[in-house]
Amino acid sequence: MTSAVLARGLRKAYGQKVAVEGLDLDIPTGSFFGLVGPNGAGKTTTLRMITGLLRPDEGRAWVDGVDVWTDPVEAKRRTGVLPEDLLLFDRLTGRQLLTYTGLLRGMPADVVAERTDSLLMVLGLAEDAGKLVIDYSHGMRKKVALACALLHAPRVLFLDEPFESVDPVSARIIRSVLDRHLEGGGTVVFSSHVMELVERLCDRVGVIHDGRLAARGPIDELRAGRSLEDAFVDLVGAQRGDGGVELRWLGTSSD
Amino acid sequence: MARYFLRLKLTLLGAALRLNWQQLVGFVMSIVAAVPLSIGGFLLMVWLGGETAGGSGLRLTLAVLTMLWIVGPPLMFGVDETLDPTRLRLLPLTQRELAVGLLVSSAVGVGPISTLVFLSGAVVGFAPAGPGALVVVGAVIAQFLLCLVVARTVTTLLSRWLRSRRGKDVVVMAGALLGIGFAALGQVPSLLLSLTGEQAGLAPVLDGIESYVGLAPIAWAGSAILAVDEGRLLAGTAWLAATVALVVGLAVLWVKTLANVSTRSAASGKVADRGLFSGIAAVLPRNRVGAAAARELRYQWRVPQLRVQWIFIPMLGVALVLGALLAPGDVSPLLVFGSCAVVAFNAFSAINVFGGDRGAVWMLVSAGGIGRADLLGKNVAGVLLLLPFVTVLSVALAAITGGWVYVPAAVFGGVALLGTAYGLGDVASVLAPSPLPESTGNVWASSSGSGCITALAQGLAMLAGTLLVLPAIVAVGFAVAFASVPAMLLVSVFAALYGMGLWWAGLTVAARVVAGREPETVSALTTAH
Hints:
- The structure holds two protein chains of two kinds.
- Chain A is α/β, with parallel strands linked by helices.
- Chain A has nine helices and ten strands.
- Chain A has helices at residues 43-50, 72-77, 94-104, 109-122, 138-150, 168-183, 195-201, 219-223, 228-236, and strands at residues 3-14, 17-28, 32-36, 58-63, 66-67, 79-82, 156-160, 187-192, 204-209, 212-218.
- In chain A, the strands form two sheets. Chain A has a six-stranded mixed β-sheet with strand order 6-7-8-3-9-10, with helices on both faces. In chain A, strands 2-1-4-5 form a four-stranded antiparallel β-sheet.
- In chain A, helix 3 crosses helix 4 (109-122).
- Chain A is globular.
- Chain B is mostly helical.
- Chain B contains 20 helices and no strands.
- Chain B has helices at residues 2-19, 21-48, 58-75, 95-106, 110-126, 132-163, 165-185, 188-196, 202-213, 220-229, 233-261, 288-302, 304-326, 341-350, 362-366, 372-401, 407-431, 451-482, 485-515, 518-527.
- In chain B, helix 7 packs parallel to helix 13 (304-326), helix 13 (304-326) packs parallel to helix 16 and helix 14 packs parallel to helix 17 (407-431).
- The longest helix of chain B is centred in the N-terminal third of the chain and has 32 residues, at 132-163.
- The relative contact order of chain B is 0.10.
- Chains A and B meet through helix 2 and helix 3 of A and helix 12, helix 15 and helix 20 of B.
């Protein structure tokens, strides 16, 4: 099986704080890969380095066999990205944003128009296609950003917290679209800290903790008979939550 | 409760200053601006109470001050988060506690303290010995409270609209337009003087304005002080009572609206579902350059900070045409070159072409990289918007002044200016990209103070641009003054070619520079709010 994503020795520091340290990653083609870790573990930094949005201090990354930093144009042609912060050209309408994104990627105008209509329809955005993206709800922004990431039919899709703050109906729509992407031979890499979701969707998982890859492999192997959450907590070494304080006064008074 | 609000305000102010140096610079600059204003205001009030002025102008001054308090806070997004009732809605506070707390918070800061110093000049200037002094002091306190309460009431009444995207857009534009308006207003006295021909003519005009303004509630405190100054203690007390009643009435209205505002949501809007290439963009090719230009055309109108110039540039054109039409006597045909002035205004935004895109530039990187096509598209959009305007304005001015012979030279001169501005702008934009300040979701949120840093960088770039374009301007100027018409045309064509050469060189350099700095460009436009 070839690698959809390969990373070797990725490192990134922000001043004194090391966000990612010597990270190696190997994601097989056709897999639904979950990158999990606590808040601030280095998931977003890792994804940004692999997608060419953040220059690593050290290390290299390949997408679909193409070096992200020596051949960025070809690597980005094979990559679709849905970032967590959803910074979009949001003073365009949904339809204008998709048209713009398609033409930016050098796609023929008629193909862009056809795919734009299909994506808006499937993602339930057709009625709001004429609304400025800045006026969209959070879930709608996620969906239109996903449409932008899918428009050029990338081989590998990177999604940073794609289901956060998304209602169940939108989440189901997004999942069905991702399934179609996988059926077409694509790969999905997504980051999350919602273990139930990762357990339900992914076939392989990588656990990041303190900027290092603490574990990786098929999800059943990693769970070893437990829930993913238990396996995850064991791996990252959770502390006793109450710190010995009992908080007996909780719920006893209105003042 | 009030002291908790006071401590919260002071803590937030301290935290904001520790957060980043831009905020500290902004705070220091606001103090630097406030100190001369408040001392100047204090001295003005003392002078107004003296023999020379005899109280004339007091009511007008107080009315202007109150108007600044009405217009200012909504436009500046307020000063701090302690003034946002929506942030406090989860706390078990009564309406009264909330109102008192917010009022105390709003009384602390550079603006309120400057206002108090300003107003206290009236006590020194107007207060007589005896009971009249009490009325003057009361009127000054009432005027100060009026400023605070009227600002809170207006901001609270407008807050639902101000929180909507359209409201925030209008606020951003209105702030910029108001700045330009104030600059224009500064010219009014000299205009009046030139119209009346002598200085004595100005005083009756101002007195006339004051006699009307004096009746308005925002000048009642001034009427109270004036009445005491004229020895009419009873009338002064009555005006003071009216001012206090006004403050109380506004406070009641404010408290009532506070309850509504913290539980209502903001509104949103919808635009017509037109494609990316509608309108003027229809002429553009359907490729990356065309798409970049088409998006830029939308952004120039939809990003409020950019839209300001497209409101102001036509206003400038209309002013030039009206000036030429209404001016007594013959107007010099050289006024045709006035059309080039509009380019200079556009040059400001050309220095930071990615500013309006902000963090969304990652999409360009993700689509293969920020490149020549994106910069070219932005420049093409600017040319599509500006060059027809320069041409039409030159023709209009020529029709009025008869300076038809200068029309081609003015248009070529416009191309020279535009080329220089865009060439230099492209390089500056990739070397020092900075996001335009975002209109935040909170109308009371604090500003970062980064505006003055951007202005400084823009000033330096403008200076460099002026030096670069100077040879072209001097050459055209000499040709207009001394050469024959064909020679003048030839020189202006060369000036245009010079400008286009600068643009091409700038574009090429900028494309090369940005190709190696894409992640850094994304970071600069994403994080530096």
